[in-house]
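Hi support team,

I'm filing this because I wasn't sure whether my run with adenosine-5'-diphosphate finished correctly. The job status page said complete, but I'd like someone to confirm that the output block is well-formed before I use it downstream. Pasting the exact inputs I used:
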Amino acid sequence: MDETPLQILTRIFGYDAFRGAQAEIIDQVIGGGDALVLMPTGGGKSLCYQIPAMVRPGTAVVVSPLIALMQDQVDALRQLGVRAAFLNSSLTPDQAWAVEQGMLEDALDLVYVAPERLLTDRFLSLLERIQVALFAIDEAHCVSQWGHDFRPEYIELSRLHERWPQVPRIALTATADAPTRSEIVKRLRLEEARQFVSSFDRPNIRYRIVEKANPRQQLLSFLRREHPSDAGIVYCLSRRRVDETAAYLQGQGFAALPYHAGLPADMRREHQARFLREEGLVMVATIAFGMGIDKPDVRFVAHLDLPKSLESYYQETGRAGRDGLPADAWMTYGLGDVVMLRRIIEGSQANEHFKRIEMQKLDGMLGYCETTQCRRQVMLNYFGEALAEPCGNCDTCLEPVETWDGTVAAQKALSCIYRTGQSFGSAYLTDVLVGKDLERIRRFGHDKVSTYGVGKELSADQWKSVYRQLVAAGLVAVDMEGHGALRLTEQSRPILRGERSIQLRRDPDRKQTAAAGRVR
Ligand code: ADP
Ligand code: ZN
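And here is everything the job wrote out:
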């Protein structure tokens, strides 16, 4: 009489087979065990708790931080005939009461609830009076204090286990670097849980980074050439840049909408709803946009600014191509990004330990940007996963990067920093190296220093690239007080003394790349 999980999958959801570890995870939870599920976005996490919720007696409680999306998820389930409801601050007291009655009458298989509501006395005592089928903790990385999605209420969720030790729990996340994973286990008391770790590779996403010159213009030609009428997301660091970029794209004939935390809530809701429902909209957004967005046909994610970690980058780019069809992750990146992010981290109120971790994460991101190897290998390696062969679907695979012995250039670049008193940024230093005849240089007497004009063998663009790579590799520090002035570090010395050589990547010539058009 009882349906098997596979029968439910077919009858209700209309799919013929489980994907990856879904079947195993479902069995684990139905059997009463705990599970920690690490699966990339689009991997199919929801079914891992929805099906056990239908099989196990009682009501499953799904904790989700995404109030805005609960309604959509519940609507979708109801259309399939699943008995689901949600409880959050958007309901009137009458509506909330009706959901509570449904739970008491065992008329619901799933109830989605916001964490702050779950932990109220009212809700906890309601749970005492019903049979809880399981607890599902979605977006479990919100328990991590290191991530940008941190939710203090998530830490309290360990109380559920103390109060209902026999009820199975399933925690799910798409963020899976090792520190976050162990924090989830520790804070949610999931030591006994079976861990299901899927591959994080998203083979249909093509990763590409271009050197930042005129980012808006570069974005425009990328869109015109490759995605003239596709849906996509453009991420910017600041609200102002979001507004400007959205207006710019609108002016160029694109259906672009802004999204950031500074916009009124109803406008944000409307823009999100339009992005989900209409075709070919470009959402220009800060990272406030995106968590849990389930739009299968996002064809590109473009970054105009550097994310602060590879986890963030992976999450954000992961919103592209959830339908499995080819999609682009495209980013502009330059020295200014590094300076900006270092400055933000330095200037934050956080303690030293936190800053150090943030800096390490940024270094991981920079390593990815500067690599001459397959980007996918670098990224998966960061998440502890090995990819045996280069992927063939990233820019470094498609257009192998040349390297060159940059030791002498690095020595010149470093000594120019030193000779000019460690108080200037890369643009000025470049002018000195190529020996530009500028009033400003003469005023400082830098036309008399030994490095003036010693760098004529490289173009100004190439010197900028040298400085960017030196900063990214930690061989040069950025002065946070001095408007991005470059300074030497301990690591500069071995290079200056000729004890260490350095290989640099040869960035593609910008003018040529622009003329050649599309990569490949
Ligand atoms: P996640 O929460 O991991 O990002 P979802 O649970 O939203 O992913 O699933 C992503 C998409 O894949 C959804 O459209 C879902 O219906 C679909 N999906 C999930 N499991 C299967 C399956 N076994 N077969 C086919 N499609 C599936
Ligand atoms: Zn590759």
